[in-house]
User: Fold these one by one.
Assistant:
Number 1:
Amino acid sequence: MQSPRLILLCAILFGCNTPDKTTPIRLHPDNPHYFQYQGKPALLITSAEHYGAVINLDFDYAIYLETLAKDNLNLTRVFTGPYVEPAGAFHIEKNTLAPLPEKFICPWARSEMPGFADGGKKFDLSKWDEAYFSRLHDFMKEAEKRNIIVELTLFCPFYGDHQWQLSPLNPINNINGGESIDRTHVYTLDKSGNLLSVQETLARKIVAELKGYPNLIYEICNEPYFGGVTMEWQHHIADVITEAEKDFENKHIISQNIANGSEVINDPHPSVSVFNFHYATPPVAVKHNYRLNKVIGDNETGFKGNADSTYRKEGWAFIFAGGALYNNLDYSFTAEHENGTFKYPATQPGGGSPALRKQLAVLKDFINTFDFLEMKPDTTVLRDRYMFSAAEVLSENGKQYGVYLFGKGPLNIRLSIPAGTYSVTFLNPLTGESHAGEAVKSDGELALTTPPFDEDVAIKIVRE
């Protein structure tokens, strides 16, 4: 890998095309399992709101983004507007994706005809709402100045008729006519009536509007494995984005949501750089698809209770398995609680809290103490893996090792590490407290005793 000094010298002497603050986030050229942003290696780690920050006029996104920045997190995920939820959907209290009547804003302008299913006037799919795009631009600017990456999700399937009844794409909610279609046909190439051209036009409009933002990733569709979304349609939208940016000096990367849990990816679209999974614990999605040499992400969590520890451990395990993007779905962010302090009920389908965000910031800080571009997942280092509820290891053989363990300690562990002298640091992922032990020697096997821990422990081992 080129050193920063060599890259700088190359740029001075030969005018190399080195990234600057105007270059969009991209896969790192030296290790495409990770990102590069503003010329530096990057991972994206966050605990973020339920995707309604732009479309919900009651949501003060400036406070929200400032909260993420203060919590040392660097990612948010946002929906664009074709999809909106009714109040109470999925048992979510104060859902940011369920704006109050008259508080929903989307890319299309309202007409003069009353009759939108959730109150107010119908939409005109032939006209843009400039107030929406002004809000979208301002959101992107506020995120950019705080070094927060925005994963902008263009579309989302309709899980049930109650969501389809609220969509501006539904003929009952717009003045543009068109045949009545089933919600499972909306995101297809051959059954959506005139909606495919509307979707293409929206994608091109957003690409044109957001041309200059470096802190942007386009995600094609949230959870396309529900609601009849076809793979052909997803690939078509990827082509539309790529074609719309073909003359841009700086192009944005595209992400695709693959599955809940895990799935082996075959025949990936060549324009897709990030493959996202939901509820990806244990992190076998990374292991199944690491061969693609692209970023693997876990960009939605939940449905496993409200406990912070559940989603802390999911994030730590995913990153130490070789993932580079983790987004906990944080229900403590709502309108009126944009600082992430809402006390949600136990019926909420996930978690999130100020305490969890601090724990994920510990993860972000810890992984950045490594030269992680040189590391890769390693299943050969840790001996006696049966002793642990779960264990993940990143390594650069003979030089640096990051170990993350579920279980309860203290534990005596053995690691297969080349002979040499190593410094060892133990870290408590819950508190961020670290303990550096004395230098230890390996003769090909390194024996360590961890401090006491109740749920998990992280270990840094670096050759001296």
Note: Confidence is low (pLDDT under 50) at residues 1-16.
Number 2:
Amino acid sequence: MKKNIFLGEHFLLGSDEAVELYEVYAAPQPIVDYHNHLSPRDVAENRTFANITEAWLEGDHYKWRAMRQHGVAEEYCTGNASPEEKFIAWATTVPHTLLNPLYHWTHLELRRYFGIHTLLSPDTARDIYQETSAALRQADHRAQALLIRMNVQMIGTTDDPTDDLIAHRQAAEKKSSIAMLPTFRPDKAYAVFDPPAYQAYLRKLAAAAGVTITHFDDLIHALKKRIEFFDTHGCRASDHGLRYLHFDETTLRDAPGIFDAVIQGRIPTVAEADQLTAAVLYNVCRLYHAHDWTQQFHLGAIRNTNSRAFKMIGADAGFDSIGAYSQASGLAAFLDQLDASDQLAQTILYNLNPADNEVFATMVGNFCDGSRPGKIQWGSAWWFNDQLDGMTRQLRTLSQMGLLSHFVGMVTDSRSFLSFSRHEYFRRLLCNWVADEMNAGKLPDDTALVGEMIQRICYSNAKNYFRL
């Protein structure tokens, strides 16, 4: 093979076998992006983006974080600078992201969505801003067209239990080629450290469910009503963002009293909050099982670490990092409590701390019961791990401690309609790593056999897992 060039035809593909696996078995597969944070309204209304900043920098805390590290003022990240000024500020940062995945993602997105092969820099920023913004105002670059361009078959959005799901209903009525399914995300139902905010949320939840919430059982009943509502709108999954999972013999006994104290205004201790969270989750997870949903748990982030920034900007703004929490015993106890009554739904576990890779890779095997392939999954390398080394480590560990052939593959976990080239990034990396194993004699020299596994990981495993 010739020497690879930056983002060339054989980008990340270091052998003829890797090229064949990618071109024949990976690249043609549709995308099932079962976990992301896209705006359902933008999809349903087929949003036209006025400029590249709206499509690229709006809500992208990955980019904001890099910009701050480069010394860019907050005005150009989340502040009141003009869209063009914000884009130019990002362009000044990009040359300094060399060897960070942002450099690859930035230029993959410019190429795949706009056909621009020019490197983004301060010198090229204004021209690229004008060209991409003009393209985004055209019909073939509206929100749905951007998804169709990347062969997206399904997106799983992330939605609060109080959401009316009007956008999902509108999208379904239009019978688009892209299925947009809601995902039930009840994190606010156990966010108890700010009692006034929690009480306000409970009022909103009660109104959405058409009930009154004064006791713990009322909360579970309200969530049950919303789960039923989500189910009628095609929901197949839930998602939960937690530091860790917890369960012990006092959880179900103590939770109602803790709930009563919180709604009366008392701030709970960390241990009490853990008990209440676990009790809520235990009850809703049994409901997920009854509806044949998949439950997802994203574990291990330490969030909103910069209190000054949190007060100024709010959550999800790029001030979170990897947390060092003990995961194994609480996770095992929680899953076992559900499995003991045969009410453990399909489950995907994501860890943010790579030190927990082996814990999660082995944990999933404890609760597979032979009822279906890959019932309990270790999810794709998440957040700070969705880069070349992190994804490779996840694939290698999963292959050695589980069954890689049943892996449900990559998700964007993104708020951007321009992020779907990350699936290409993953697929190229996957094919190259597997081809290296073939060339080392660790796999048979049989591209049809190995290629079938590639195709399953890239598409059909997720398609089957989510009953598409």
Note: The beta strands are 31-33, 152-156, 179-181, 183-184, 237-242, 294-299, 301-302, 321-322, 346-351, 376-378.
Number 3:
Amino acid sequence: MARTAQELFEGHGLQENEPLLRGVSGSYLFDIQSVGSWFVGVDKGKVKVDRREHEAADCVIQCNEQDFVDIVEGRRNLLTSVMQGRVQVQGDLALAQKFHRLVGAISERRRGAM
């Protein structure tokens, strides 16, 4: 279990050609308060993670580190967190929903590997 956003991005579990994102193209900027930003580009399932802020992303997700870790590890629901004001999403909400589904699938994949 990861304790930091850095650990999650280093061992994110996304494959270079992620089957779960086969039909997805777009970009995410994860802005983790007091920690930093990560840019994730997806092009029809090909994933690239970069540890720097880019000028523009299709979907920007902002939150504190603990909420981010809890969401990615499946302890907190992204959409519920948005409604509670714990997470802010700007831009393409459809991409945010796809991220939500991807997080669930990765959590299931990790549980199956244990």
Note: The chain has a mean pLDDT of 84.
Number 4:
Amino acid sequence: MKRVAFGFAVAVMLAASAAMSAAPGGKQDFTLINKTGLVIDEFYVSPTTTNDWEEDVLGVDVLPNNQSVHISFDRSETSCDWDFKIVDEDGKAVVWADIDLCKAEEITLFYNNGTPTAAVR
């Protein structure tokens, strides 16, 4: 079901992204690039100082391998250090910790010799 809705969801995300480009976002805004070799079904972003993952940022969408999505924050957000959690299509969760989003424009998630790695640019 998610895969059928993906095309529609991408169109909605592109329209939303175009609308959001007119409104300034938070300094933590970034583009997420999936190079994990997996389909990301869920993506959570949480300040490093909290233990709550809150809600799936992708919503009903998925992020296929070799695809990207822009993640925007509220302008009033002040935290720079964040943790990421993905849940893949098989339900497996993987966490990346302590990523400084105030210095990031683009973040690529991948595995380096089986270790979850994030390249920040």
Note: The helical segments are 2-22.
